TrEMBL record:
Signal peptide range: none
Smf/DprA SLOG domain boundaries: 86-293
Pfam families given in the database record: DNA_processg_A, WHD_DprA
Protein name, entry field: DNA protecting protein DprA
Lineage, uppermost ranks: Bacteria, Pseudomonadati, Thermodesulfobacteriota, Desulfobulbia, Desulfobulbales
InterPro entries membership: DprA, DprA_WH, DrpA_SLOG, WH-like_DNA-bd_sf
Biological processes annotated in GO: DNA-mediated transformation
Domain called DprA winged helix: residue spans: 309-368
Protein family (similarity comment): Belongs to the DprA/Smf family.
Coiled-coil intervals, chain numbering: none
Length: 376
């Protein structure tokens, strides 16, 4: 796995307390290299943001020696785990990410680096997503990877996981940007997904190995999700969703923002509808994204709703079960609604619902609501 030139010096700088991405980048740019910055060749007192405390830190040989020892141990772990380390000067560092105001100085990468050279779209949304939201995220990801577009997201519950899985199941490329070290699985329930991402996609983080998933790290990683992509798609989000923060970051970075519409009475779609009102592109399918980003589309205009409706039921279901499944589309429905839609006696309806639930095709929600189970 490739290591950036001057990897030990880059790591030493990054492990000095109080030096963030912006200050490190200013120091290295003035000095010409991380090694020169550590030798004070950059005259850090002349660098904006370097005050007396940081100047004293840079001049403290004992502090620098401690940071270098930590860097050497980090390099040993990196090499042992087969992880790639990219710096801002590395040829494999993503060009789009390099252009944001505060690009990460170092990127830890676990997986296929070639993925970073492909056109990229971010697909994000609510952690507590509905089945509709997860299904739309998976279908949209599958449509995009079919056109050799990489999907980037954050490996969280809900929309993120659905987007990654949709891309992987379609045989495409996907990048998970983490708010912890690339050797830390979070959430723990996604251990299988992380294995797939490391084997077929890419896990990426700016944080050292072993870094725990602390809350303040996730807003910081969102700038990387939007920074890697030419466009950001919000599939499902409430008015106060963190996904809207990522959408604002995307706008600040000069990226295009897209939103998938949902039901007008669903709080889970209120944030996406607000984005559309504010000028975000309404997404009906992958073609909308490809055309807005001026990429060539290799497929015909297939909308998400049409593709979802065209998804046939499992061959293991009976005609009566198939009839009921077609009445359970994007959102949960109650018993009375299903009786009206299907015309089935309530006794027969309960039997069919139980059979479909046992087959794993639907699930019951509180309040005797039922929905199709298309994505876990």
């Amino acid at each position: 796995m490739p290591l950036c030139p001057d990897a030990e010096d880059w790591l030493t700088l990054s492990l000095l307390p109080g030096l963030g991405c912006v200050l490190i980048w200013r120091l290295v740019r003035q000095a010409g290299s991380p090694g020169e910055a550590l030798r004070l060749g950059a005259r850090p007192s002349a660098v904006p943001g370097i005050g007396p405390r940081l100047l004293a830190l840079m001049a403290d040989s004992a502090q620098v020696a401690v940071a270098r020892q930590l860097a050497q141990r980090e390099l040993e772990r990196i090499e042992r785990l087969g992880i790639s380390l990219l710096s801002l000067y590395s040829p494999d560092y993503p060009e789009l990410l390099r252009t944001i105001p505060d690009p990460p100085v170092l990127l830890y990468c676990r997986g296929d680096l070639a993925i970073l050279r492909q056109p990229t779209v971010a697909v994000i949304g609510s952690r507590a997503a509905t089945d509709y939201g997860r299904r739309m995220a998976a279908l949209l990801a599958a449509e995009l990877v079919a056109q050799d577009i990489t999907i980037v997201s954050g490996a969280a519950y809900g929309i993120d996981a659905a987007a990654h899985r949709g891309a992987l199941r379609a045989g495409g490329a996907t990048v998970a940007v983490l708010g912890c070290g690339v050797d830390v699985v979070y959430p723990r329930a996604h251990a299988d997904l992380f294995q797939e991402l490391a084997a077929q996609g890419l896990l990426l983080s700016e944080y050292p190995l072993g870094t725990p998933p602390e809350g303040f790290r996730f807003p910081a990683r969102n700038r990387i999700i939007s920074g890697l992509a030419k466009g950001v798609v919000v599939v499902e989000a409430t008015e106060k969703s963190g996904s809207l923060i990522t959408a604002r970051l995307a706008l600040d970075q000069g990226r295009e923002v897209f939103a998938v519409p949902g039901r007008i009475d669903s709080p889970k779609s209120s944030g996406t509808h607000r984005l559309i009102q504010q000028g975000a592109h309404l997404v009906h399918g992958a073609t909308d994204i490809v055309e807005a980003l001026a990429w060539e589309s290799g497929t015909g205009p297939c909308g998400l709703a049409e593709k979802a409706a065209a998804t046939g039921p499992s061959p293991q279901v009976s005609p009566a079960e198939q009839h009921l499944l077609l009445s359970l589309d994007a959102y949960p429905r109650d018993i009375d609604t299903l009786v009206r839609m299907t015309g089935l006696p309530i006794v027969d309806l309960h039997t069919l619902l139980l059979q479909l639930e046992l087959k794993g095709l639907i699930r019951q929600l509180p309040g005797q609501l039922y929905e199709r189970r298309l994505m876990d």
